[in-house]
Amino acid sequence: MEDNEALLTGMMGKGGNEQSKSADLSMKSSILSYEAKSENDINAIFSDVAPRLVMLVGFNDFGKSTLVASIYHQFLRKGEFCGWKLIDSETWTGFERRAFLRRVNDDSSMEESTKRTILRESYLLNMNLIGNDDSTYIPLVISDRAGEYYKKSSSVDDNVLSDVFYPRADHIAFFVDETKLEVKYFGALKNQYKGLLGKIQKFNKITSRTKIEIVFTKGDIIDAAIKAGEPKERREHIDEKKDEIKQLFKEMLLREDFNYIDVNSKDTIDNENIDGRINSLEPLFKYWMSDTDPATPDLLDNWVNKKIKQHG
Amino acid sequence: MDKKNCFIAGLPSSGKSTYIAALWWTVTDREDKIYKHEKNMPNTEHLDNLKNAWLGFEDLMRTPGLKEAENISIELTKVEDGSELSLSFPDLKGEKFYNLHYEAEQPALEKIASKADCLFYFMREFEKDVYKEEGEDEKQEPENESEETFSDKKYNKVVSNIIMLKKLKQMLSCDKIIFFISAWDTRSVSNGKSAEEWLKKEYPALYNVIYYNFKEVYILGISAQGGSYNAENLAELQKASDIGMRAYIYEKEKLYDMTYPLTL
């Protein structure tokens, strides 16, 4: 991070040296569209600071885009989140699109197909973040691909083999929708993850430097149903299946250092700290932004530009 | 003689033309001012039309016949020391800027912007979390919600402003912005909050983008219109006009005339 710090020297507020606000943080002239980017566009996003790469993995309607939109919304409304300020993005439209989907997701009259990130959509989203003390700058890139893509990946070798993001990601967040852990859906969910994780392992796509989170979403929907009178056994069953999923990840990826995080659907919809409790998005986001081992130059080769490689 | 090329920009209805009208009135008619206009100009039709509409309490956004002017030049003299300033700026419709959302390139706009040494950007307060069609605030929602689809017209207006600022930044060769928050008279200034503090609190993401992407930033409150034009207000506005206090710029609890930004 020495270079990041050098880059930001002098950005200490309005009274500081105005000239020292580095040109490297200025808006890129080459980009005229602010849609999400594809993997081929990634060089257009950055100046010369290594990005933090976060990959969201999960099947249809597991809440990946909703979570991204919620974090974005948090930044838009408050300017900062978990000690980080959003100072720019090259994918404003991509975020706006997801914010729109997040809004209509709450509308049961919408057709399912309109709610999802679709398969052909570009999927890389960018937030340029600076620490609240103005001392650390991190361009965050989130890969938010369609659930359909991962469904296909669970059956098709080439999908996993050709994916450039797995080995380069600093974080991979696997999403598990708790409502899909019920008897009716569990078999298919487990089978899909088994297929996907098997291929990831077969092609050795994840290195040990990549941190892995297993993000359980929509658990509060189950809890609300129980509170409304449904049998408590439903929760016990879900918890049992959560353990089964955790075990599946351990067995398939041959590692145990997972970070398990529950994200409440209420937080992803309302985005407010209700009754003073911590927003459940915070632990996940803080974890993403915590220190990571930088990607090695060979991992970034042929993908992000040489300047970034030097920071590796 | 110093020369200043200002690029005046903002979304539709953000107060650009009202500022130009009030500026022209200030340098020609107001007694107490920082800069005055003395020299003869061969054609002041556009500026006079704006000024007359402003003096007649006409809403400049809705006044028919007011056209765009790509290059307005005014020669000014500083009252304090007699130094001279040649000011150039365009008066372009907000729609032209809004079109930046759709059009990859706008050579005419780029040509004007590339000469500027300062961006004057105007923004009017808006609802923060509402996704409405630009300029269609009163349009009825579709009867069938399922017909709703995303389009780039559905940007949150914070993001609309951010995207426009980014696109303008690409066109400009300068790194200086004077960001005006229009209709400053509609909010309480008695709490002593500066326009910068207000923007930071109300639109923090927009503030961050401005602050971290331009090297020289000034954020000012402006009331160029002087207040809303309704029957109850007109007498009071006329009185304010008569004593030269109708239009003002607010910064750190002080009021300035329309020429103040030219001194920054």
Structure description:
The complex is a heterodimer of chains A (312) and B (264). Chain A has 312 residues and is of the alpha/beta class. Chain A is built from 15 helices and eight strands. In chain A, strands 2-3-4-5-1-6-7-8 form an eight-stranded mixed beta sheet, sandwiched between helices. In chain A, a hairpin with a 2-residue loop joins strand 2 (80-81) and strand 3 (84-88). Chain B is of the alpha/beta class. Helix content of chain B is 31%, strand content 21%. In chain B, strands 2-3-4-1-5-6-7-8-9 form a nine-stranded mixed beta sheet, with helices on both faces. In chain B, helix 1 packs across helix 2, helix 5 packs parallel to helix 7 (204-213) and helix 6 (195-202) packs across helix 7 (204-213). The longest helix of chain B is centred in the middle third of the chain and has 15 residues, at 157-171. Residues 130-147 of chain B have low confidence and may be disordered.
- Strand order in the sheet with the most strands of chain A: 2-3-4-5-1-6-7-8
Mean pLDDT of chain B: 80
What is the H-and-E element order of chain B?
A: EHEHEEHHEHEHHEHEE
Order of helices and strands of chain A: HHEHEEHHEEHHHEHEHHEHHHH
Summarize the structure.
The complex is a heterodimer of chains A (312) and B (264). Chain A is an alpha/beta fold. Chain A is 43% helix and 16% strand.
SSE blueprint:
The complex is a heterodimer of chains A (312) and B (264).
Chain A (H helix, E strand, L loop, with lengths): L1 H7 L33 H4 L6 E6 L6 H15 L1 E2 L2 E5 L3 H14 L6 H4 L8 E8 L5 E8 L2 H7 L3 H5 L3 H4 L2 E7 L5 H20 L8 E7 L1 H9 L5 H21 L4 E6 L1 H6 L10 H9 L7 H4 L5 H5 L2
Parallel strand pairs in A: 1-5, 1-6, 6-7, 7-8
Antiparallel strand pairs in A: 2-3, 3-4, 4-5
Chain B lengths: L1 E9 L5 H13 L6 E2 L8 H11 L13 E10 L5 E8 L2 H5 L8 H8 L3 E6 L33 H15 L4 E6 L13 H8 L1 H10 L2 E8 L7 H12 L5 E4 L2 E3 L8
Parallel strand pairs in B: 1-4, 1-5, 5-6, 6-7
Antiparallel strand pairs in B: 2-3, 3-4, 7-8, 8-9
